Amino acid sequence: MFYSLIKRNSRANRKENSIYFVSMIIAIIAFYVILSLENMDVIRFIKDMESDAVHKLLSLVPALYVFSLCVIFFLVFFTTRYQMERRNHELGMYLMMGMKRSRLFFMLIAEDLVNTLLSLLIGIPMAVLFSEITSLAVARVVGIGILGHKFTISMTGILWTVGGLLLVKLVTLVSLSGKTVQKEPQDLMKNSTVGREKQQRKTVSFSCLIAGIMLLIAAYGVGIFARDFTLMSLNLLLGLLICGTTGTFLFFQGLYPLFNLMMKKQKGKPGLGSFTLRQLQESVFLKNGSLAAISLLALISFCCMAFGISSALTEKPVHHMDYTFHGEEEKVKKTLEKSGVMEKFQVFYPMHTSNLDTDLMVSGELEKGFYKLDYENILRALKAEKDSEGKENVLYDFEENGYLSVPHILCVSDYNAMLKAAGESEIPLRKNEMMLYANPEFSVGGKAEILKKILQEDLQIYLNGEPYTLRRELAEYDIVTDSAITLAYALVLPDDLFWEAASKSSVSTYWNGVLKESVVRKQGLIQAISEINQKLNQTEFGNQTDLVYESYVENIGRHLFYIIAESYTTLYLGVIFLVIANTALGTQYLMYQRKTGKRYQTITALGCSYEELSRSGRTQIRWYFLLPVLVACVSAVFGIFSFTEGLLSSYFEMQKNHIIFVGILVIFVICVVEYLYMMAVMRTSDRTIRELMKRKREED
After folding, report:
1. Across 448-542, where does the E strand assignment appear?
2. Distance, CA of 352 to CA of 426 (rounded, Å)
3. What residues does 662 pair with on adjacent strands?
4. Which secondary structure element, helix H or strand E, spans residue 607, and what is its range?
5. Bridge partner list, 434
């Protein structure tokens, strides 16, 4: 009988608190995904290439785990307390009927542990499946397919997930259940009353509202216009956090006069408008501090998830070559033939780079063999354009950094070989023409757009006084596979001029290779490159033991690490904070609705129908969710700017405009999720109102 009671009560608790039950399953999935990070295929794939960085990332996992447990503890504590308070009358009846306090204590713990174990039984398999799907999805996003995928289950992740959740649950249950069973039956069975309404002058509330709005505007301004939060500007970051947090709390504290104004407009109107506003006014005004805290939690979640998803969807490295080797042609090809991999390449072409000799002037005249470059026409065309971010950035590169004062130069035949291998049209560069090269990773912030615009003017630059016309096209392809070895700007010259003007002491020769399509189809890109790497590492290169080379896989590995390090961690934190914010918001409203249940019963006795009470409850929920979520959404939009302007790694900073755009779209999608969650709370509210009306009829 006793165990049947535990089973029945567990089922009833699970049904009445389905939102909380689902939230715990989501938290379990999030815990397992972050704890099993080390076992994922993508981490194993990049560990050899970025071992130090991966170890640093994995060392952060325990800190994230402990932090998440602390946050989850407050969610569990808050929700469990609500469940206990909701059942006070029932628990008091058990004591009145002679149940021992120790037996009641055991019953409460057993009921919750049954639901906890059920959530683990559902959540762990879902977490394992989700982890595997995520691993495959990351590989698909960066365009490398299945990485020799092996299905794995992280027993360490499962044990720490189960252990952490059970620890939080037991600590919460022992403290709250012990406190509840020590109460006398009459204390448990008496009706709850809503706390007295705070007394606050209208002028004080209005002042708080104005001050809160001004502080939020100040925080938004700092977030947009601050370029970066370096060690020298930590005070700026601290000021932003203080302004944003204080402004949010003051804003919610100052909402009371607005409800008074709305109440006046409802006077004399039929229906439950006044009752709805009074309920909402009381719940928001009495809970303004918790609503502000929930709004801040939602803000953190929105920013983390928007940034995590948008950065994960940033453009992957352009794939138009598979290998880049460094060294003399004869030695490189000899090594490749010796290792037995030369036959796997479909295309093999050189890429020469150098600096233009612009060094010495003798008696005011240029010494023979050295060159003087005049690019004033480029600067003049830039300065004539309308002020923009791109214009400022390019002028800074050319005037302050001096990228064209001693320019890098490329050979047009090499660049054309790369275009041909990539399936693009070659560039017919005439004898009196040059082409401007701008690496795509540096051509951000509007740089590429402004350069393409001024090149339409058929600009001329002068080399030793001889004019050369810049082609209207902007060369933008990476010249080697390693994105860490790039030229910001360069000039593409005709072959004869390149070899004549190149600084003989600084010519660097790279050899780019593209694998045969048949090899890639048969083995897959990853397997093919891994096999070639293994053979190359076992082959001597001249008098050296290693061949200096870089493959597309290493470049992808670096890209994957940025995705894992920044996207996974921010997404994980975003999910945790979103679960906490939503569960706390829904539970807080439902708790208030239960406490004011007598009011619903009184209105029912006066002849109010279920449909009218349901509409009233749904209207309250809309406003109750709208206030904190709307403030969080507005703040999150500005928060995305702060992330991209001040807190991004240089890798993602190159694509900040893309991240901002996608981040705003993600915030919109999260708002849709919030709406669905709000609908779930509405259905729970309808069920609560129906129970309150039924109880009133039974009492009658």
Report:
1. 460-463, 466-470, 489-493, 508-515
2. 17
3. none
4. none
5. 470
pLDDT digits (tens, 9 = 90+) for 166-208: 888 888 888 888 888 787 777 766 654 444 444 445 556 778 8
Could you tell me if 385 and 322 are in contact, meaning their C-beta atoms sit under 8 angstroms apart?
no
C-alpha to C-alpha distance for 468 and 480, rounded to whole angstroms? 27
pTM: 0.67
The span from the CA of 592 to the CA of 586, in Å, is: 10
The encoded tokens of residue 436 equal 């401007």
Cβ atoms of 149 and 135 within 8 Å: the answer is yes
Contacts of 636 (CB under 8 A, 6+ apart): 299, 302, 303, 306, 667
CB pairs under 8 A, 24+ apart, for 399-404?
Answer: 403/488, 403/489, 404/373, 404/375, 404/378, 404/489, 404/491
Residue 351 backbone class (left: φ over 0; alpha: ψ -120 to 50; beta: rest): beta
Query: How far is Cα 456 from Cα 468, in angstroms, rounded to an integer?
Result: 15
Contact 472, 433 (CB under 8 A): no
What dihedral do alpha carbons 80, 84, 87, 90 form, nearest 10°?
A: 130
d(CA 394, CA 375): 13
Rounded Cα distance between 154 and 177, Å, is 34
CB count in 10 Å sphere of residue 668: 11
- Among left, alpha and beta (phi > 0; psi -120 to 50; other), residue 112 is alpha
Q: CA 65 to CA 583: how far, in whole Å?
A: 20
Spell out the residues 6+ positions from residue 479 whose beta carbon is closer than 8 angstroms to its own. 351, 353, 410, 414, 415, 418, 486, 487, 510
Token pair belonging to 146: 């299945």
Residue 509's beta-bridge partner residues?
352
The answer for residues whose C-beta is within 8 angstroms of residue 689's C-beta and 6 or more apart is 593, 600, 610, 613, 614, 617
From CA 638, how far away is CA 645, in angstroms rounded?
A: 11
- Residues 127-176 pLDDT 10s: 888 877 776 666 555 445 554 556 778 888 888 888 888 888 888 888 88
Tokens 């390693």 — which residue?
Answer: 482
Query: Which of 434, 441, 509 shows the shortest CA–CA distance to 473?
Result: 434
Closest CA to 590 of 689, 685, 687: 685
